[in-house]
Amino acid sequence: MTRAIRQATARVPGSKSVTARALLIAALADGTTRLREPLVAADTVAFAEGVASLGLPVTRDAGVWTVTGDPGGPSAAAATVWCHDSGTAARFLPALAALGRGEYVVDASAQMRARPMGPLLDALRQLGVGVQAQEGDRLPLVVRGGRVSGGTVRLDAGVSSQYLTALCLAAPAMEKGLRIEIEDIVSVPYVELTLAMMRDFGVDATWEGSTIVVPPGTYQAREYRIEADASTASYFFAAAAVTGNTVVVPGLGRHCVQGDLRFATEVLASMGCRVEVGADEVAVTGPERLRSPGEVVMRDISDTMMTLAAIAPYADAPVRITDVANCRVKESDRIDAITTALGVCGITTRTGPDWLEIEPGQPHGGVVETRADHRIAMSMSVTGLRAAGIELDDPSCVAKTFPGFHEEFAALRTAWARS
Ligand SMILES: O=C(O)C1=C[C@@H](OP(=O)(O)O)[C@@H](O)[C@H](O)C1
Ligand SMILES: C=C(OP(=O)(O)O)C(=O)O
């Protein structure tokens, strides 16, 4: 007997990572850039307000953000840049501030103040930028803007690729450009995304072995469409995986530049899902019984680690996720947060410094401690599709990247039920 598969569409907002990069590039571009379909969420609003506070105007209309760039860098004489909980803002904006003509304070929430900044600050200091930080190179910072001539820096991006992206994005505005010699690196697809977007705005940076070479140059202002967020889409793809239904997500497709789409095309596909990548949409259909992918190395796509952990109980054998040490220094200690959440629901897990393992089982209800981490909230919502009584202590923390998440998730369930 063939089973009835229910199909529905889920609308996922614009990519956080693409929106943040586009804002910074546009701020340094020659002219006015119009960003279509940007992500409107706490992280990107903080980013846009940070750019504006540095003296580079950003107008936010529905569906279009307009940025008036200045290849000479920020013009404000003084500013306080408030990054809220956003790693992209807290790591990218100090590099933009370094190019300015004033003295800037960069600060953020307690959650972000606890996250590491050291390698970025070390690289900025190698370039002669005046940076003062709190003990342990944490936020808040004072950055003294000035002419940055560039040259060569060494960088350890083994805890976060965001330090490397920050330097790459700012480098064309440096007199000699920049050679960045990379010691270690995580989240490589995010760096590829950075270089691809720089190319879209007219600057061609290249890899030479483990060095990135960015020539001096000027970004060209343009009209730019922000694609949907592949990390956010992972929750909707995972929902199809555990229910055996089909979800179609528009705004992602063959030309997608985000590494996290690999969660669908590689991880879910290896678990028995059918994954169809079209020109401007991706469809995922769950199997009758979810297969364990065995061990999954997630160093490149660690934002989707919790999505996989959240569906792992429904697989037919244990799931082991490895090489995700830097998940311990994100919005929460994510290895601890997701295994604690699953534990509250009766699922057995094991962890190590950079890995976790999840046993198959039927979760029961419980109150999940989200630890103000949007991805714990969204991931455990997926677990809740096949387990009654899973509640989040703070559902509103999804506002970091998708304020409308719960409404869209509920709409998908309703659409499946009606189809
Ligand atoms: O550059 C970016 O836009 C991002 C890089 C990744 O961080 P790490 O490089 O710290 O892993 C990712 O987790 C984050 O959500 C967004
Ligand atoms: C790690 C994340 O964000 P950021 O580092 O940009 O705060 C995330 O969105 O999962």
TrEMBL record:
<comment type="pathway">
    <text>Metabolic intermediate biosynthesis; chorismate biosynthesis; chorismate from D-erythrose 4-phosphate and phosphoenolpyruvate: step 6/7.</text>
</comment>
<dbReference type="InterPro" id="IPR036968">
    <property type="entry name" value="Enolpyruvate_Tfrase_sf"/>
</dbReference>
<dbReference type="GO" id="GO:0009073">
    <property type="term" value="P:aromatic amino acid family biosynthetic process"/>
</dbReference>
<feature type="binding site">
    <location>
        <position position="162"/>
    </location>
    <ligand>
        <name>3-phosphoshikimate</name>
    </ligand>
</feature>
<dbReference type="GO" id="GO:0005737">
    <property type="term" value="C:cytoplasm"/>
</dbReference>
<dbReference type="Pfam" id="PF00275">
    <property type="entry name" value="EPSP_synthase"/>
</dbReference>
<feature type="binding site">
    <location>
        <position position="303"/>
    </location>
    <ligand>
        <name>3-phosphoshikimate</name>
    </ligand>
</feature>
<dbReference type="GO" id="GO:0008652">
    <property type="term" value="P:amino acid biosynthetic process"/>
</dbReference>
<comment type="subunit">
    <text>Monomer.</text>
</comment>
<feature type="binding site">
    <location>
        <position position="162"/>
    </location>
    <ligand>
        <name>phosphoenolpyruvate</name>
    </ligand>
</feature>
<feature type="binding site">
    <location>
        <position position="375"/>
    </location>
    <ligand>
        <name>phosphoenolpyruvate</name>
    </ligand>
</feature>
<feature type="binding site">
    <location>
        <position position="21"/>
    </location>
    <ligand>
        <name>3-phosphoshikimate</name>
    </ligand>
</feature>
<feature type="binding site">
    <location>
        <position position="16"/>
    </location>
    <ligand>
        <name>phosphoenolpyruvate</name>
    </ligand>
</feature>
<feature type="active site" description="Proton acceptor">
    <location>
        <position position="303"/>
    </location>
</feature>
<feature type="binding site">
    <location>
        <position position="400"/>
    </location>
    <ligand>
        <name>phosphoenolpyruvate</name>
    </ligand>
</feature>
<feature type="binding site">
    <location>
        <position position="326"/>
    </location>
    <ligand>
        <name>3-phosphoshikimate</name>
    </ligand>
</feature>
<feature type="binding site">
    <location>
        <position position="87"/>
    </location>
    <ligand>
        <name>phosphoenolpyruvate</name>
    </ligand>
</feature>
<dbReference type="InterPro" id="IPR013792">
    <property type="entry name" value="RNA3'P_cycl/enolpyr_Trfase_a/b"/>
</dbReference>
<feature type="domain" description="Enolpyruvate transferase">
    <location>
        <begin position="8"/>
        <end position="408"/>
    </location>
</feature>
<feature type="binding site">
    <location>
        <position position="161"/>
    </location>
    <ligand>
        <name>3-phosphoshikimate</name>
    </ligand>
</feature>
<dbReference type="GO" id="GO:0009423">
    <property type="term" value="P:chorismate biosynthetic process"/>
</dbReference>
<feature type="binding site">
    <location>
        <position position="334"/>
    </location>
    <ligand>
        <name>phosphoenolpyruvate</name>
    </ligand>
</feature>
<feature type="binding site">
    <location>
        <position position="115"/>
    </location>
    <ligand>
        <name>phosphoenolpyruvate</name>
    </ligand>
</feature>
<feature type="binding site">
    <location>
        <position position="160"/>
    </location>
    <ligand>
        <name>3-phosphoshikimate</name>
    </ligand>
</feature>
<keyword id="KW-0028">Amino-acid biosynthesis</keyword>
<feature type="binding site">
    <location>
        <position position="16"/>
    </location>
    <ligand>
        <name>3-phosphoshikimate</name>
    </ligand>
</feature>
<protein>
    <recommendedName>
        <fullName>3-phosphoshikimate 1-carboxyvinyltransferase</fullName>
        <ecNumber>2.5.1.19</ecNumber>
    </recommendedName>
</protein>
<keyword id="KW-0057">Aromatic amino acid biosynthesis</keyword>
<keyword id="KW-0963">Cytoplasm</keyword>
<dbReference type="InterPro" id="IPR001986">
    <property type="entry name" value="Enolpyruvate_Tfrase_dom"/>
</dbReference>
<dbReference type="GO" id="GO:0003866">
    <property type="term" value="F:3-phosphoshikimate 1-carboxyvinyltransferase activity"/>
</dbReference>
<keyword id="KW-0808">Transferase</keyword>
<feature type="binding site">
    <location>
        <position position="330"/>
    </location>
    <ligand>
        <name>3-phosphoshikimate</name>
    </ligand>
</feature>
<feature type="binding site">
    <location>
        <position position="17"/>
    </location>
    <ligand>
        <name>3-phosphoshikimate</name>
    </ligand>
</feature>
<comment type="similarity">
    <text>Belongs to the EPSP synthase family.</text>
</comment>
<comment type="function">
    <text>Catalyzes the transfer of the enolpyruvyl moiety of phosphoenolpyruvate (PEP) to the 5-hydroxyl of shikimate-3-phosphate (S3P) to produce enolpyruvyl shikimate-3-phosphate and inorganic phosphate.</text>
</comment>
<dbReference type="InterPro" id="IPR023193">
    <property type="entry name" value="EPSP_synthase_CS"/>
</dbReference>
<dbReference type="InterPro" id="IPR006264">
    <property type="entry name" value="EPSP_synthase"/>
</dbReference>
